[in-house]
Design goal:
- Among the domains are: 10-85, no CATH class; 107-192, Immunoglobulin-like, CATH 2.60.40.10; 196-298, Immunoglobulin-like; 320-411, Immunoglobulin-like; 602-690; 975-1010, no CATH class.
- 55% of the residues lie in helices and 17% in strands.
- The chain contains 24 helices and 28 strands.
- The radius of gyration is 62 Å and the shape is elongated.
- Residues 484-510, 593-612, 629-684, 830-849, 891-927, 945-964 are annotated as: Disordered.
């Protein structure tokens, strides 16, 4: 069989088998031949013969014993075959594999192998996928290629590997490799989707106390939120089966709730800042890149407060508190806490609080509170410690508070107040002296200017500068006067604040302040304004005329300042005397109290001796006060006669020293006797001083009363003489020789007027009741008389007569005004003597202006009906005209007090009153005059009703406040200016934008308020 090189057919093979295996014979050949025929009989025959052959065991036909000798010849091929299997198994197995897998494509066998390094051929859509290939074998080609869709692409060789990257794959890929003409099998790259976020929303649910509207943010992961905010995430995903969230570095992950197809939600409240990650997952992978975001939690900060404080160290009436409060989310309350510590009390007082109003809808705001101390039970020498505290509206952690530092405010002791008042009095006196000198210098400059301008038609440079300097010096003088009256008022207010002032001294103090207030009159101001205008126009004649009027006004001012200085000295002396009496009375009480303690057996001798020593020091202080009183007395133009108390003073000092020594030796009985003696001597001193005070007042009142009666009498006589002279001038011609004689008479009347003026000015320096306009009226009288004398010299009779008429009117006015002063002085004298109805029932009610006007109207009507004539009529008319003038002046003062021009009560009434004055001076009482007076009275009643209502409104507004001035300190004016700007700016903001712009405005004004003052 082996020799048969040609391939045998099936029949030939069957014959050969039949020949070798007799048991088979031709059965196998028959089966092969029968297969060519059809039919059931043929098939049955084939089946039978096949069964016979199948049951035959061919291996039994072989005689292995005879073939054993050939085994040795098989060893060599077997060794070769095993070696081939070990060295190159594919040499043997590949052929059989191709035979078995006949339906599979087999490429030609290469001398190297293609090894794909990728563990999985699964790529993600829209992502790059890199193929890594290694070639291994005996011979490695230099290049390798990837075959994609019949396209052959060279692969990149790098570090022993071949790579190729599919960019942004979208679909599945089939590929193979080719190298050196050999091809690999085909590979398949599967494309799947990674899980991803399509979009997401974040819902912010803010704490309710913030008053902030909840928000929804789209595709915003980094959050800045207030503490306590609830955050809800809603993720819309792609190809996600699961979503988790993790916070900070914790390994814990929280499952997001799958609320819909590919929609996940999670909610959490935040109180700390955090970093969080969102994680998505499906069967193939997680999300490719980490999704990390940060949550910044803004802690509710403590509120901020700053405080500027202004302590009223002049009057000790109030403490002004102002500053700025702010918080990140809102303010709820601002309180002032204070503790009062009494002088000499070592234990701390109870802490009290006061609510300060704030705006709760403003996170940044200024505040101002004027804390009036009169509502507190606080005495001299006590101190107050205080601070402010502000609360925010923290609804998460509870309200938080911040407070300012603690401030202190100490009220001065009685002796400190006295020292302050004395120092200010000394300064005021010095300032009045200085102001008098300034007024004298100004007057000298005015005189110099008048002399330079005489006979000139034009101003030169020097004269113009001189006039400018006059105006400048007047402005400086006005400032000094303003400061002077303010200083005096503050000092008197301080004195009244801490001590009960003697009623008489208190009244004098008010009158002195009124005099100071009237030093700056409106007429003088107008003259200086007119001088400014004329200086620009350079009208020399008008300038000379105005300077002449200013000169007269400045002359009056100088006299008023000298009078003010003397009255101030007088009042200072009265106050010092009253203080000395009160101080002595206080020491008498203390000595008596110490005497009672001394008589007690249980009292300690050392403590008693110390108290006695303290009383000795206080008496020494009293002696210094008395010495100062004597110095003040000597400064007066008319010094008083002070009582001699040297003997009593020496005895008090001796007895107090004896008492102290006896107490140190524990001789209480002897000490008590010395204390009693000291008290008695002090009582004697007090009685002497009180008697002197009372006698001085009465003596002065009587002297002043007598002087005033003489002045009024001389004024009336002067008025009548002026009237008689005026009548004579009307009937004489300029050429008449009597004209010169009458001129001499006018000169004599001018001299008489000077005597009246000197007497009046001397009296005014002692009598506080004489008002400033009295001395000004004297100046008017002198001006008219001087003008009359000049007109007579120039033979200008009409002008002379007119000026005499005006002079007579001024005399009548003065007489009437001084008559009122006389009545006031008489009432004051009755009060001092403790006599009359005014002492028992109080001071009679002062009649109102309408009552005075009604009384005047009645007098005018009665005078019209009386039929009087001549001197009697002139005298009555002059008095009535002066009385109407006084009512008019008081009406004008009231109008200045109660309203501006156009809204003054009784507007137009002063003009109608002037018309009546003119009628009375001209002796023309007609029916028109009577009707006008009725109209004046009616309108005056209406004006008084209007003023009464206004006063009641003002009283209601200030019913809980003191009548002292509550001025806003300059330090806090800026706070209110900024506050007003805030309010005005916010008014312009539309309602919808209000919350945002309110925040911006707050920040703007906060920055503005923090800028240093330039």
């Amino acid at each position: 069989m082996l020799k048969n090189e040609k391939a045998m057919s099936n029949e030939e093979a069957a014959k050969k088998i039949g020949q070798h295996f007799p048991e088979i014979n031709d059965k196998l050949l028959n089966i092969i031949q029968l297969e060519k025929f059809k039919g059931e009989l043929v098939q049955a025959s084939i089946s039978q013969k096949s069964y016979l052959i199948e049951s035959y065991q061919f291996e039994k036909a072989v005689d292995f014993k005879t073939n054993r000798s050939y085994v040795k010849y098989l060893l060599v091929p077997l060794v070769l075959l095993l070696s081939a299997l070990i060295i190159s198994p594919s040499f043997i197995t590949s052929s059989s594999s191709r035979i078995i897998k006949f339906n599979k494509e087999f490429v030609p066998e290469a001398p190297f192998s293609f090894q794909l390094e990728n563990e999985e051929l699964i790529g993600f859509k829209n992502e790059d996928f890199s193929i890594k290939l290694n070639l291994k074998g005996e011979a490695i080609p230099e290049n390798a290629y990837i075959v994609i869709n019949d396209r052959i692409i060279k692969m990149l060789y790098e570090k022993g590997s071949y790579t190729y990257t599919f960019n942004k794959i979208q679909n599945e890929k089939a590929f193979s490799f080719e190298a050196a003409g050999y091809n690999s099998s085909t590979y398949h790259l599967t494309v799947v989707d990674r899980p991803n976020i399509k979009n997401f929303n974040v819902y912010l649910n803010y704490p309710s106390y913030l008053g902030k509207k909840n928000e929804r943010l789209s595709n915003t992961g980094n959050l800045q939120i207030p503490e306590g905010t609830k955050v809800k995430w809603q993720l819309k995903t792609i190809q996600s089966e699961e979503a988790t969230i993790g916070f900070d570095k914790s390994d814990s992950l929280y499952q997001l709730k799958n609320v819909d197809n590919q929609v996940f939600e999670f909610e959490k409240a935040f109180f700390q800042s955090s970093i969080y990650s969102l994680n998505l997952k499906n069967q193939y992978s997680n999300n490719k890149e980490k999704i990390l975001y940060k949550i910044d939690v803004a802690k509710d900060q403590y509120p901020e407060i700053d405080l500027s404080t202004y302590q009223d160290t002049t009057m000790y009436n109030y403490i002004a508190l102002g500053g700025n409060i702010s918080d990140d989310y809102g303010l709820t309350q601002l309180k002032l806490f204070y503790t009062i510590n009494k002088e000499g009390n070592n234990t701390q007082g109870k802490t009290e609080s006061i609510d300060i109003s704030i705006s709760k809808n403003q996170n940044n705001q200024r505040y101002y509170y004027q804390w009036f101390l009169d509502s507190l039970d606080i005495s001299q020498g006590s101190s107050i410690s205080y601070y402010l505290k502000v609360w925010d509206n923290d609804g998460v952690n509870g309200r938080k508070a911040s407070k300012t530092g603690t401030y202190s405010f100490k009220l001065p002791t009685k002796s400190e107040i006295k020292d302050q008042v004395d120092q200010t009095n000394a300064k005021t006196k010095k300032d009045i002296d200085k102001t008098i000198k300034e007024a004298q210098e100004l007057k000298e400059q005015i005189k110099e200017a008048e002399n330079r301008l005489k006979g000139k038609q034009e101003l030169n440079w020097q004269e113009e500068n001189l006039l400018k300097d006059i105006i400048k010096k007047k402005e400086e003088l006005n400032k000094s006067l303003e400061e002077l009256k303010k200083q005096n008022k503050n000092n008197q207010d301080k004195r009244n604040r801490f001590s009960e002032e003697n009623k008489n001294i208190s009244e004098k103090s008010k009158q002195l302040q009124k005099l100071m207030d009237e030093l700056l009159d409106d007429e003088t101001k107008k003259l200086y304004e007119e001088l400014k205008k004329l200086l620009e126009e350079k009208d020399v004649d008008d300038i000379q005329n105005t300077l002449n009027q200013i000169d007269n006004k400045e002359d009056n001012l100088e006299k008023e300042l000298e009078r003010t200085l003397e009255l101030f000295k007088r009042m200072q002396f009265d106050q010092k005397l009253d203080d000395a009496i009160n101080q002595l009375d206080d020491q008498i009480k203390k000595q008596e109290e110490l005497n009672e303690k001394t008589e007690e057996k249980s009292s300690d001798k050392e403590d008693l001796a110390k108290e006695q020593e303290q009383l000795q020091k206080e008496f020494e202080e009293f002696q210094k006060e008395k010495a100062e009183l004597e110095e003040m007395n000597q400064e007066l133009k008319n010094p008083e006669s002070l009582p001699d108390t040297k003997e009593e003073e020496e005895q008090v000092k001796q007895e107090q020293e004896n008492a102290k020594e006896s107490l140190e030796k524990n001789k209480k009985k002897k000490a008590s006797e010395s204390q009693q003696n000291a008290k008695q001597q002090m009582q004697k001193m007090k009685d002497k001083m009180m008697q002197m005070q009372s006698g001085m007042e009465m003596s002065m009142m009587q002297e002043n009363l007598d002087d005033l009666r003489d002045i009024v009498h001389n004024l009336l006589k002067l008025s009548f003489d002026q009237e008689d002279l005026m009548k004579e001038f009307k009937n004489v011609q300029q050429s008449d020789p009597r004209f010169v004689d009458l001129g001499q008479t006018e000169l004599k009347l001018r001299d008489d007027a000077k005597i009246v003026e000197d007497s009046l000015l001397s009296l005014a320096s002692r009598v506080f009741q004489i008002a400033t306009f009295v001395t000004r009226e004297v100046g008017e009288m002198n001006d008219h008389m001087d003008n009359s004398v000049k007109a007579i010299k120039d033979r200008k009779k009409p002008i002379a007569v007119s000026e005499q008429q005006f002079a007579m009117t001024s005399m009548n006015n003065l007489a009437l005004l001084l008559d009122d002063v006389l009545e006031q002085m008489m009432n004051a004298m009755q009060d001092a003597q403790g006599q009359g109805q005014s002492k028992q029932k109080g001071k009679p009610k002062t009649p109102s202006l309408s009552e005075l006007q009604k009384e005047l109207n009645n007098k005018i009507s009665e005078l019209k009906k009386s039929g009087k004539s001549g001197r009697a009529l002139s005298e009555e008319l002059a008095k009535l005209a002066a009385e109407q003038q006084r009512i008019r002046q008081q009406m004008q003062e009231m109008q200045e007090k109660y309203g501006e021009s156009g809204s003054k009560p009784g507007d137009g009434l002063p003009e109608k009153m002037e018309e009546t004055e003119t009628d009375l001076v001209n002796k023309q009482i007609t029916q028109e005059t009577i009707n006008r007076q009725k109209e004046i009275l009616t309108r005056m009643l209406e004006a008084e009703d209007a003023m009464r209502e206004r006063e009641q409104d003002e009283e209601r507004k200030a019913e809980s406040a003191k009548d002292y001035e509550k001025a806003l300190p300059k330090a806090f004016e800026e706070y209110f200016k900024l506050k007003e700007k805030e309010v005005e700016l916010l008014k312009t903001v539309p309602p919808k934008l209000y919350p945002y712009y309110k925040e911006e405005v707050n920040e703007y004004f906060k920055r503005l308020g923090s800028k240093p003052n330039n």
